[in-house]
Amino acid sequence: MTDNVNYYFKAGAATKAPILMLHGTGGYEDDLVTLAQQLAPDSPLLGIRGRLVEQGSTRYFAHTTTGGFDLDSLARETTWLLATIDELAEKHDLEVSKMIVLGYSNGANMAAHAWLTNQAKFKAGILLHPMQLMQYSSVASLNDVKIWASHGHIDPIVSAANFQALTQSLTKAQVDLTIFEANQSHAISPPELASAQQWLQQIIA
Ligand code: MLT
Q: pLDDT tens digits for 35-49?
């Protein structure tokens, strides 16, 4: 099944947690390589490209015709992404439960959605500018999950209310959550990376 998947893999130290890179809208499987190498120099890296293209931009799930999130596409593509991660992990001898997600925007949203629907096997992640994609009524405990998540006060894509809803959902599910907020937009900033790096150093094997 992974024959048609656009992915990036780089081997690393077997003792280090693999980094799972999930790009933002319009991104590619290797977009976050420089960032991942900066944050976790010796880790194996796996990046997977979302398989949808909307108005020329790669994505992990579709919008509806009226601009909302297409929840059927979201469910379908989450299943696809998680199955693809499993297959590539097996192929490259990586343990999914040891992976640390490095997700930006659309990719971070997928990881958060996978956790909040209790489908994710990975247990840690750096979510750069994530948002909550839907209401989650019953989330089983995620008390073994550690997440660092960032938000910009002047982000035109992720509202303060949405980020708050996301952090509330994660907190309610007992995630060990670290939040970075600053007066920044949707782009990743140096202080944000410094904070993520500091967090990662505490949890990386
Ligand atoms: C999404 O579609 O996941 C969000 O709007 C963020 C993005 O545009 O990537």
A: 999 999 999 999 999
Residue 13 has pLDDT above 90, yes or no: yes
Task: Give the C-alpha distances (Å, rounded to integers) separating 88 from 9, 14, 16, 92, 182.
Answer: 9, 16, 17, 6, 35
The answer to whether 132 and 165 are in contact (CB under 8 A) is yes
Q: How many domains does the chain have?
A: 1
Q: Which residues contact 86 (CB under 8 A, 6 or more apart)?
A: 96, 121
Q: How far is the CA of 12 from the centre of ligand 1 (A)?
A: 30
Ligand 1 neighbours (beta carbon < 6 A): 24-25, 105-106, 109, 131, 157
Structural domain including 111 reads: 2-203
Average pLDDT, the chain: 97
Which pTM does this prediction carry? 0.97
pLDDT, tens digit (0-9, with 9 covering 90-100), for 98-142:
999 999 999 999 999 999 999 999 999 999 999 999 999 888 999
CATH number of the domain bearing residue 24: 3.40.50.1820
Q: Which of 25, 116, 185 to mutate to test the pocket of ligand 1 (most atoms within 8 A of CB)?
A: 25
